Amino acid sequence: MRLGLVIGYWNSGGPPADVPEQLRTAESLGFDSAWTAEAYGSDAFTPLAWWGAATERIRLGTGVTQLSARTPASTAMTAITLDHLSGGRLILGLGVSGPQVVEGWYGRPYGKPLARTREYVEILRRVFRREEVDFQGEHYQMPLLEDRGGTGLGKPLKSIVKPLRDDIPIHLGAEGPKNVALAAEIADGWLPIFFSPKSDGYYRAALAEGFGRPGARRTPDDFEVSCVVPAIVGDDVEACADLLRPMYALYIGGMGARDANFHFDVFSRLGYDEACHKIQDAYLDGRKGDAIAAVPTALVEDVALIGPKEKVLDDLEAWRATVITTMLVSGPPALLEDIAALVG
Fold this sequence. Notes:
Layout: E1 2-8, H1 19-28, E2 33-36, H2 45-52, E3 59-62, E4 65-66, H3 72-85, E5 90-95, H4 99-104, H5 113-128, E6 135-136, E7 141-142, E8 170-173, H6 177-186, E9 189-191, H7 200-211, E10 224-228, E11 231-233, H8 237-254, H9 262-284, H10 288-293, H11 297-303, E12 305-307, H12 309-320, E13 326-329, H13 333-343
Parallel strand pairs: 1-2, 1-13, 2-3, 3-5, 4-5, 5-8, 8-9, 9-10, 10-13, 11-12
Antiparallel strand pairs: 6-7
């Protein structure tokens, strides 16, 4: 199992001060990749380029950049540019996000996320192959024709710049089984945001469906699955869990609407439906403290590595047996060194 560094997106305090040191440590420890993200604040590409410029070997991934933030051509241009500047180290992680962000922040319709993703990725592939792009889909059109509101002056174009790689890897962020199957069919990797060894069989089945579709791009042997796995080593399991409860309360309770929260669904499928409803009710009622307190320690233990070193090592074996190929972790350099030693 490889290791990757989670840089993520910024909170209200702005850019974290120790990212350059984290990256130097991760690269020196042999970490395979480093990942930025975006929500509705900092973007994913700029920090990756800025901080990544000081690295030499580690792969640089967006985990994830949101489809609605950019047209397919804009994303392709940015990917080609960053792949050149990094010497072919970019991993383009894409995700549709949810209706709260897509419609509330980008002002775009959220409907038909699977179809939108399929069209978006197809256009990216054509641009990376430096083809003239003539694509008339339901959601994306290049060029824009007169009957769709164009002037009639547009024509199919291809990238002026020859991409360094014509097969820049695309990984899809996905949580539901249909999205996971789509990732296995058309992408080079899957980026689950929350995962538990207990759900390994469920996701293996979804991936297998995608791999079995006609024209699937990859096989299980050359497909990457990179997952965030929070790791906190400490003698007191409850104290370790307390450090993570606020994050899970936010995602389960506040990152989405009451009836449309994909993160809620992940934990509900894990067997925490009752707890999820308590967390969501409290969070949406403005009782964040109650929402945090309602996050069960067992839930945290299912999706994170917490507790004494011996417990973490024991729990780690279950993760090694899953579809996860890269464990994405975060923390100060000292913690990264501890995790690297544990994972071996």
